[in-house]
Amino acid sequence: MTDNVTKLFQNTIILDTETTSLDFKVAEVIEWASAPLMEIVETVATEEYKIRCNQLYKPSKPLPQEISAITTITNRMIDAGATCAFDDDLATIQTELNHHDYYVAHNAFYDANILARYSLKMPRQICTMRLAEKLYADDVNIKEYNLSYLRYALDIPVSDSLVAHRADADIIVTGMLFTTLLDKALADGEIDANADDLGFELVKYLEKPVKITTMPFGKHKGKKLVDVPLDYWLWALDKMDSLQENKPEYDKDFAASVAEAVQEIFDNTN
Fold it and tell me: Which of 33, 96, 148, 204 would be 54's cystine partner, CB 3.0–4.6 Å?
């Protein structure tokens, strides 16, 4: 491990939240886990798989059954193991976050929006889902980017005993996925291997749009963006939340790709 990689590992915290809803606008945190990246790497190397910062929290309402089905967290577990609400532990969590320059999460967009509602001050964000989307954009063998899929598709070296959608297990998988993606980014020359601050190089790399060529949802799902009728795009640019920069749902990759497609449609019709 080079000095700059060691520095990144020491300055990076991996985190995950499990919540009461898939909608971040209303979700409450019911489980939190976090650990320095170096600690995760060492934990996996020793096969101990123990995370010290892992806690269940009480929500304001009983947990919906559909969330228990995803997370395997039940109201009985919360009643037995949760001693406070997430709001009551924010000072401790903020102290832990303050010790790191970067945080890594899978689908960090969701976690960032959840944690913003709790007014936590976050380090710079690195999203493993977005990193995988960029690094494997042209790989036809990678068909999905959710954490469980990538765990097996990329053969992430973690124990088969880790249960998906529990925060402690997910940060171990995310941490080791991150090391795999970092190795690929360095090997592919996507970031400068000699840079003193590799985290900053990754942040810059992730800010560049991923080009989307096919409509991912709605009545035109599956069509090439340039084949979607212009009048639909004129409506979407005004009404679609994922294209509105002031909305939480704003998707800068999709917005950049749509802008390019609309320009191409204009060019071809004039």
Answer: 33
Tokens of 114: 């959840």
What does the alpha-carbon distance between residue 100 and residue 10 come to, in Å, rounded to a whole number? 8
CB-count burial class (<10 Å; 0-12, 13-18, 19+) for 252:
middle
| DSSP string of 242-268, one letter each residue | GG-TTSTT--HHHHHHHHHHHHHHHHH
Model confidence pLDDT, tens digit, residues 90-102: 999 999 999 999 9
The string of pLDDT tens digits covering residues 156-190 is: 999 999 999 999 999 999 999 999 999 999 999 99
CATH for 3-207 is 3.30.420.10
Q: Are 19 and 28 in contact (CB under 8 A)?
A: yes
What's the Cα-to-Cα distance from 132 to each of 136, 168, 216, 224, rounded to whole Å? 6, 21, 17, 22
Domain ranges of the chain: 3-207, 225-269
**Burial zone of 162 (CB within 10 Å; 0-12 exposed, 13-18 middle, 19+ buried):** middle
The answer to whether the beta carbons of residues 97 and 103 sit under 8 Å apart is yes
